[in-house]
Amino acid sequence: MLHDRLPSFVKEHYEVHEWRHASAILASDYPQEWQDILDVLTAFRLRKSWIATGGGSKSKVSGFIDEFLYERGWIEKKFETGVLLDGQRLDSPTHQIDCYRNKVALEIEWNNKDPFFDRDLNNFRLLFDLRAVSVGVIVTRCDGLQDIFKKLGRGQSYGASTTHMSKLLPKIEGGGAAGCPLLVFGISPSLYVEDMT
User: Fold this and answer.
1) Letter string b/e over residues 65-94, b meaning 16 or more CB atoms within 10 A of that residue's CB
2) 8-state DSSP, 75
C-alpha cells in the first residue's frame, strides 16, 4: 500500500521503508503534511556543489529541506517535558525536532555520527507516548551514494560510522522507536546532479 501512495518520482529516486502504517496515517489524518513531504522530496536534488564543499554547522541538504518546509508553516520544535514524582517535577528534556507541524515530526540525518539515529528514534518514541507526535519521518542517505563521494574525493568525510540507511534500519528493527509509526526516505544516487564545471 505504501508504494500506491507515493508519486512515481519518489518511488524511483528514494529508498523508502515504513513501519506501523505511517503512510496511511499521514495520507488520511495529515494530508497537508503528507503533501508537503512528497513535494519537498520531489523538488530535492543532490547537488555536486553541496558535497564538494564541506564544513559549516548545517549541510546544504538539511538547509534545503528545512527552508522548503518552513515556508509551508513547519517549525523547528523543542518540547518541554517532565515527570511528576511525589509532587516534585523532574524535567525530562527532549531533543529539538528539525521540522514539525501538526504532530508530524521530520528529522534530516545527512552526515552526522550514527548515534544521532538513536537520539531521533528515542525522541520519536517518547513524544509518541506523550501524544505530541503521531508519525516520525527520517530523511537520510542511501549507501549507494558512497561511490559518488569517493569519486569527488570526499569519501572519508562520509565514513562508515556516519548516518546512512544501513546504520538506521537495524536500529529501527531493534525497536528504537517502539510504537511510533515511522517512514524513512533514503536519498539515492539518481538524485545527484552536476552543478559545477
Assistant:
1) bbebbeeeebeebebeeeeeeeeeeeeeeb
2) E
Q: What is the pLDDT of residues 91-125, one digit of tens each?
A: 877 788 999 999 999 999 987 887 889 899 999 99
Angle 54-172-56 from CA coordinates, rounded to 5°: 15
171: Cβ–Cβ under 8 A, 6 or more apart, which residues?
Answer: 117, 118, 121
Chain segment 39-58, per-residue pLDDT in tens: 999 999 999 988 876 656 67
Cell output for 158: 562520509
**Residues 6+ away with beta carbon under 8 Å from 194:** 48
Separation between Cα atoms, residue 90 and residue 31, nearest integer Å: 36
Q: Which residues pair with 83 in a beta bridge?
A: 90
Which residues face 88 on adjacent strands?
85
**Full-model pTM:** 0.91
| 143: DSSP letter | G
Backbone angles phi, psi at 153, to 5 degrees: 70, 25
26 neighbors 18 (Cβ within 8 angstroms): no
Q: Which ranges of 16-164 would DSSP assign to H, the alpha helix?
A: 22-29, 31-43, 48-52, 60-70, 115-129, 146-151
Q: Say how far apart CA 84 and CA 116 lie, in whole Å.
A: 28
